[in-house]
Specification:
Layout (H helix, E strand, L loop, with lengths): L2 H14 L2 H8 L3 H15 L4 E2 L6 E2 L1 H29 L1 E7 L5 H13 L2 E7 L2 H10 L4 E6 L6 E3 L1 E5 L36 E3 L6 H14 L6 E3 L3 H9 L4 E5 H6 L3 E4 L7 E7 L11 H10 L3 E2 H4 L10 H7 L2
Parallel strand pairs: 3-4, 3-5, 8-9, 8-10
Antiparallel strand pairs: 1-2, 5-12, 6-12, 6-13, 7-10, 7-11
Helix pairs in contact: 1-2, 1-3, 1-4, 2-3, 5-10
Length: about 325
C-alpha cells in the first residue's frame, strides 16, 4: 500500500465531503479514490466515512485520525522540499585546520554564496583532510606540503609567555634560531630544566616533523625536548604559564595574548595547497577566489611573495639543507 497516496485520498475526501470532488482535486478517477479509502479502512480496522446518507460524513474514527494523517502528509511535503533544495544547491564540504581565523572563514562562506556554492567548513587534522578528499567526503581542503613546493606558506615561530609588565608585545620582533634554545649552564647553580617545545596537531605530519627533528639535531637540541601537544587549549595554557614553548603561526599566538618570534629557518614554515577531490567535476581546478580566502584563513601568503631571492638574508644554510632533506 502506498500510504501517502491513500492518506491523500482520505484527507481530500474529509475536506470535500464528497468522493467525486476529492477525486477531481487529486486528479484521479473516483473508483480509484474509493478503493484507496476502502483499503485504508481495512488497514485501520474501522470505517473512516459514513456512506449511509446522501452527503458522506466523517466517522468518529475518521475525525480522530485526521490530524495525524495531515501531519504525516505535511512532513512528507517538507521532506520533498528539502530534497529539492538540496538538489538545486551545490553543497560542498571544505576541510580546514583547527587554527583558522573565524572571520576569514566567514568571508569564504559568504563568497561561496555569491558564487552559488554552499560551503560547509570542517575543522580536521591534516591526515583526515587528505583522506576526506580521497573518499569524496570533502570537496576541497587545505593540504599540508613541503613549503618550497607549496602554493602558500605560513611562517612559523615560537609562542611564549608575555612579560609580566606586558612590554614584550611592543618590543621589536626578533628572529629566533634553534641554536638559541640550547640550555645555558650557569657557573654556580645547576641549569633549570629547559621548557619543552610543543607541536600542535596541525604540525604533527611527517613532512614537517622529520625536518624539525633534523634541524633540532643540528642545533644541539635533544629529541626529547620536542613533544606533541594535546588539545590546543592545554598547550596554550602551558605556554602562557611559562612552562612550555609552542610552535605556531603568529595570528594564533597573538589571538591568545602570547609573545611570538619567527623562526629563522624558512624550511620549517608551513606549506599549503588548496586541493579538490579527485572525483569532483573540474577536479584539480580550485576556484582562485576560494584558494585565496582559505589561505588567508590560516595566515598564509602566496609562496612566490614569501620566497627571497638568491643570497637574500632570510635564507640561511640550515634552511637549504632541510629543504633538500
Amino acid at each position: 500500500m502506498d500510504l501517502l497516496a491513500h492518506l491523500e485520498a482520505y484527507v481530500a475526501t474529509a475536506d470535500e465531503a464528497s468522493f467525486s470532488r476529492a477525486a477531481d482535486r487529486l486528479g484521479i478517477a473516483q473508483p480509484l479514490l474509493s478503493r484507496r479509502i476502502k483499503t485504508l479502512e481495512e488497514h485501520f480496522g474501522g470505517l473512516l466515512f459514513d456512506r449511509s446518507r446522501r452527503q458522506i460524513t466523517t466517522t468518529e474514527l475518521g475525525v480522530l485520525l485526521l490530524p495525524y494523517a495531515r501531519d504525516v502528509l505535511d512532513r512528507a511535503q517538507r521532506l520533498r522540499q528539502v530534497a529539492r533544495s538540496a538538489r538545486r544547491s551545490r553543497v560542498c564540504a571544505v576541510g580546514v585546520p583547527a587554527d583558522c581565523a573565524p572571520a576569514a572563514l566567514a568571508r569564504a562562506i559568504r563568497a561561496g554564496t555569491e558564487h552559488g556554492i554552499t560551503l560547509g567548513m570542517r575543522e580536521l587534522p591534516p591526515a583526515e583532510r587528505v583522506s576526506g578528499l580521497a573518499d569524496g567526503s570533502l570537496g576541497y581542503a587545505l593540504v599540508r606540503t613541503a613549503p618550497e613546493q607549496a602554493a602558500f606558506r605560513v611562517p612559523l615561530g615560537l609562542a611564549s609567555a608575555p612579560a609580566p609588565d606586558g612590554t614584550q608585545g611592543r618590543t621589536p620582533r626578533r628572529t629566533v634560531h634553534l641554536e638559541e634554545l640550547r640550555p645555558r649552564r650557569g657557573r654556580t647553580a645547576a641549569p633549570a630544566a629547559p621548557p619543552p617545545l610543543l607541536l600542535l596537531t596541525e604540525d604533527q605530519v611527517p613532512v614537517f616533523e622529520d625536518r624539525l627533528l633534523r634541524s633540532a639535531a643540528r642545533a644541539g637540541l635533544p629529541k626529547a625536548r620536542i613533544r606533541p601537544a594535546g588539545p590546543a587549549a592545554t598547550a596554550l595554557a602551558e605556554t602562557l604559564a611559562g612552562s612550555a614553548l609552542l610552535l605556531c603561526a603568529e595570528p594564533f599566538a597573538r589571538q591568545h595574548g602570547a609573545h611570538w618570534a619567527p623562526l629563522a629557518d624558512r624550511a620549517l614554515h608551513r606549506g599549503y595547497d588548496v586541493s579538490a577531490a579527485p572525483g569532483r567535476a573540474g577536479a584539480g581546478d580550485v576556484p582562485g577566489w576560494l584558494a585565496a580566502l582559505l589561505a588567508s584563513a590560516v595566515g598564509a601568503v602566496p609562496a612566490r611573495l614569501d620566497r627571497p631571492g638568491p643570497g637574500a638574508d632570510g635564507e640561511d644554510a640550515s634552511a637549504r639543507l632541510a629543504a633538500r632533506g
